[in-house]
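Re: weekly structure request thread

Next one in the queue (312 aa):
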Amino acid sequence: MIQHLKTGVLSILLSAVAMPAFAADPESCKVIRMAEPGWNDLAFTTGVGLTLLKALGYEPRSSLLGIDVIYLSLKNKDLDVFLGYWDPAMVAYYKPYKEDGSVENVVTNLKGAKYTFAVPTYVWDAGVKDFADLQKFPDQFEKKLYGIEPGSNQLMLDAVQDQTLGLSGWDVVESSEQGMLAEVKRHAKNKAFIVFQGWAPHPMNTELDIKYLTGGDKFYGPDFGAATVSTQVRKGYLQECPNVAKLLQNLTFDVDFENRGMGYLMADGLAPEEAGLKAIVSEPRRLDAWLDGVTTLDGKPGLEAVKAKLAL
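Done, posted below.
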């Protein structure tokens, strides 16, 4: 009899060990405040995050803000999550918040990115292959460099101020990602000179015939601004909301996936969450890694819940 009891207790203990341990986040974690600066890559990845979090029972919200405002808001605890720290392009923005510990890195969510000046291939063929070549063609460029949203072009502004590049008197035209690319297409139609802020992942790399300029290591880093993208949170958030933290640690992407997802935004005209949903439905196998060890807000297995919610 005693032996049977021992065996029964042992079986129960082994079953408990074999089962995954699920623990719900506190109710205070239900609302998740996110932000992105209007860049299509970050709009798409944020859309994926919003879709997953909603399917898990959370209430995520995303705001469109400038980079400087995003960091100040994370420091002041007005935001919780930011999926778009480009390193090294945003090093200067992040530096004071890294030093005071108010913003924390979670995980590198993308490798193989790049970010630096670009020109149409016909401009490159005409002799503009390096940052130092820009000063040779001031009239053709109308002394203009085309950037994206105000607050996101500091490295381009720094290049203009660098006396060794001979760009004194040049203007940085700030508008938006869409506005900048519209100018690139307009100039390309007429084979006019234009230099602009280019990066990958982005559909511009397949839709436009462009080349990246050498010589920008001082501003963007080596290998054409070879970059990584990381997820960041406000100080203490990982400890306050460990289940969301687990999802954020799992949520990584690749360049091809983001190129396709950004195409849903730019070519198909989908909203970020619609693009995120389409990407997830197209590649549901990614859910296994993203939701490993993740629960719903109320502590139920996350993978099952998300598949049911998204009808996968």
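The first strand starts at residue 31 and ends at 36. Residues 27-113+227-309 form a domain with the D-Maltodextrin-Binding Protein; domain 2 fold (CATH 3.40.190.10).
Next request, please.
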